[in-house]
Amino acid sequence: MSTLSATLSSITAGGPDGWDLHRRAMRMIAAGEPVIPLSIGEHDIRTDPAILAAMDAAARGGRTGYAEIAGTPALRAEIAARVQAQSGVVTTPANVIVMPGGQAGLFAAHRAACDPGDVALYVDPYYATYPGTIRAVGAQPRSVIAAAEAGFQPAEDDLRQAAQAGASQGRTRSLLINSPNNPTGALYSRATLEGIARVCREADLWLISDEVYDTQVWEGAHLSPRALPGMAERTLVVGSLSKSHAMTGSRVGWIVGPEAAIAALDALATHTTYGIPGYIQDAALFALQQGAGFEAGIAEPFRRRRAIVERVLARTTSVRAAPMRGAMYAMLDIRATGLSGEAFGRRLLDEERIAVMPGESFGTAGAGHVRVALTVDDARLDEALSRLVALAERLAAPA
């Protein structure tokens, strides 16, 4: 067998990908063990039957051949209208390309911003695929710590220093952010985003803004950095229907950015994905046309479950939650137990049959934490959290 490319071989940097505990939990469930899965951001409802009916009608109506690679005109127009309404930034279909999911959007955005050897910055804690996505385009990933003590908000000076340090190793070309944030539930403040924007303008960086949780905001308001002065021409926004419409398996995402960048990404899609099926695009158009009220209904269970987390944790000092201002997760500080997130997660799975993600799966800033996905029904979540707290209290108790 011939040698694989260095780029492909280095995607995981030769180490674990952070999903080992989740995979073990899935094997236990498959074997019939009663595990409560709180390890992955998958809705506990399925895609709405009306969306599936629209998909079925489109497929049966003949929309099974090649579709427009950049997205159907109607879908691009609907995405543009939604983004403009949310952000206040003039957005046309020429600013939009449809992608096969948000992950493909992240890859394509970095392919647009970076050449092999360039430095690409991202914030730690981070969604588990971020550094591998950067390596997959041949760039060098460099993390910037957002400390738990600062509410997981990245500091402007830290970003500036990272951009300068990256320039000594190659060209620093991009910064990837995610707000509302997975895994922490942080919602970046206006001050944080303005600091990010200043660094991007000073260092001439592309800002890649992962906004797939933009409908899941519990405190404050979502602000897209594309709306800040001087940022529309250097920001690539990645969006998706996965979280907003419970359509994770349909793989519908998009990138919004400057027209020239979108045109270049159209050429990339022509030579890679060749677009997504027309019947799925038609279903995505139908889903978006249901409006903000539909999206709020999809988000509402996570708002309700956030309150369950707050109520259960109010009776303990052994577990603390990071500010949960958005997204479908709670980042729990279990450092009072003396264990790492990885060790606590193993104990929780072995002793309580509850699966969470270790904070270390998301970078060094997540050490001593576990991420809980609010993706089971209210009663099971309440039970799981109560048992998690009981384990933490036993471990934290003086010998």
SS-derived structural category: alpha/beta
* Total DSSP E strands: 13
Number of helices: 13
Please compute the radius of gyration using only Cα atoms. 21 Å
Kindly provide the name of the CATH class of the largest domain: Alpha Beta
Largest sheet: 7 strands, mixed
Mean pLDDT: 96
What would you say the CATH architecture of the largest domain is?
A: 3-Layer(aba) Sandwich
What's the shape?
globular
GO molecular function: L-aspartate:2-oxoglutarate aminotransferase activity; pyridoxal phosphate binding
Family: Belongs to the class-I pyridoxal-phosphate-dependent aminotransferase family.
Catalytic activity: L-aspartate + 2-oxoglutarate = oxaloacetate + L-glutamate
Keywords: Aminotransferase, Pyridoxal phosphate, Pyruvate, Transferase
Topology of this protein?
Blueprint: H1 6-9, H2 20-30, E1 36-37, H3 49-60, H4 73-87, E2 96-99, H5 102-113, E3 119-124, H6 130-136, E4 140-145, H7 156-169, E5 172-178, H8 190-203, E6 206-210, E7 235-240, E8 253-256, H9 259-270, H10 278-289, H11 291-313, E9 320-321, E10 329-333, H12 341-352, E11 354-355, E12 357-358, E13 369-373, H13 378-396
Parallel strand pairs: 1-11, 3-4, 3-5, 5-6, 6-7
Antiparallel strand pairs: 2-8, 7-8, 9-10, 10-13, 12-13
Helix pairs in contact: 3-10, 4-10, 5-6, 7-8, 11-13
Cofactor: pyridoxal 5'-phosphate
GO molecular function, one term: L-aspartate:2-oxoglutarate aminotransferase activity
EC number: 2.6.1.-
